[in-house]
Design goal:
Strand content: under 5%
Number of strands: 0
Mean pLDDT: 78
Number of helices: 18
Low-confidence stretches: 1-24
Largest sheet: none
Length: 317
């Protein structure tokens, strides 16, 4: 499995694959179109894979942060093994560590905590939907960090998105349900952290390889959750260990695909494509856990998705 992942990553991370270069001589127009769409397909595939995270959190008998720690540690080990098998470990060790990587470690460490805690406290579809308010926050933070101009349409999109959040957090959903209220807090926190992480990854994606960025992000999650893991008792559960380790191994691909695509796709566009994640999360929640959608959640979900689209459209106008 590790060898297969390494081969997939070598193709995904090398934008000049032999398949493209050989065929481009014979079909230049078609191959140019395919090459242009590959980064967008990478992002969509990455978030479809990520939609299974909520399933693992629900099925595992570990505490959410224990699951996050073990999965992140497995991802770090998998990356090092892939680098060793592809003879890139020495070049990886020689790369300089920059303050931006420290920012990634902090952002992704706490974002992982927020995501896993939200998935454990509310329906996985609703949790990922709130997390996907990140396009709005990308549109808000981009002018500050990337020195882009803020437009009135971005502000309108933010209001629409927050209105959608209001429907999901309606009294009939949270009254007497502190667990759900906590889930909303964690999901909203993950949306803000994901927006900052997307912008930061966009800034350094051309400076460092996707595997390099992914490794330090995962290491951040390991370090942030380590105090909790150290002070809490583990349950002896073979099934939970297997699905969590499998999640850690498979997590290499979506992170690498996403970061690699950010070299060619703008941060706000990448955030919009991430909206496929809650759609699949709702599907898994319904099929596996019989999670049903209430009318306020449907209305709120529509407003959040529309606000993301409106924000991106305003940035492209």
């Amino acid at each position: 499995m590790t060898v297969l992942i390494s081969l997939i990553l070598r193709v995904a991370l090398d934008c000049r694959t032999c398949g493209f270069s050989e065929r481009e001589h014979y079909y230049p127009g078609i191959m140019a179109v395919m090459r242009a769409y590959v980064p967008y397909l990478q992002i969509i595939l990455a978030f479809i894979i990520w939609s299974f995270v909520g399933v693992v959190v629900r099925l595992s008998h570990f505490a959410p942060l224990q699951t996050l720690w073990l999965a992140s540690l497995t991802t770090c080990g998998t990356i090092l093994l892939i680098l060793y098998l592809t003879e890139r470990l020495k070049s990886f060790q020689r790369r300089a560590f920059s303050p931006w990587l420290l920012v990634i470690m902090i952002l992704q460490g706490f974002m992982g905590v927020a995501v896993f805690e939200s998935l454990a406290r509310m329906p996985i579809g609703s949790a990922t939907l709130i997390t996907n308010l990140s396009p709005l926050f990308v549109a808000v933070f981009a002018p500050i960090i990337l020195h882009e101009r803020t437009t009135k349409k971005v502000i309108i999109a933010l209001v629409i998105g927050l209105l959608g959040l209001g429907f999901i957090a309606s009294p009939q959903n949270i009254t007497g349900n502190n667990f759900f209220s906590q889930g909303i807090f964690f999901a909203l926190s993950s949306a803000i952290l994901l927006a900052l992480l997307t912008i930061n990854n966009r800034k350094i994606s051309k400076q460092y390889s996707p595997l390099f960025i992914t490794f330090w992000g995962m290491l951040g999650q390991v370090l942030v959750t380590f105090p909790f893991v150290l002070t809490n008792q583990w349950q002896s559960d073979g099934f939970s260990s297997i699905i969590t380790i499998s999640l850690g191994i498979s997590a290499v691909a979506p992170f690498a695909l996403w970061i690699s695509a950010l070299r060619k796709v703008r941060a706000v566009t990448a955030s919009l494509l991430a909206l496929v994640e809650p759609l699949f999360s709702y599907l898994w929640g319904f099929l596996l856990f019989k999670e049903l959608l209430s009318l306020p959640i449907v209305i709120g979900g529509f407003l959040i998705i529309f606000s993301g689209y409106y924000a991106i459209r305003s940035k492209n106008a």
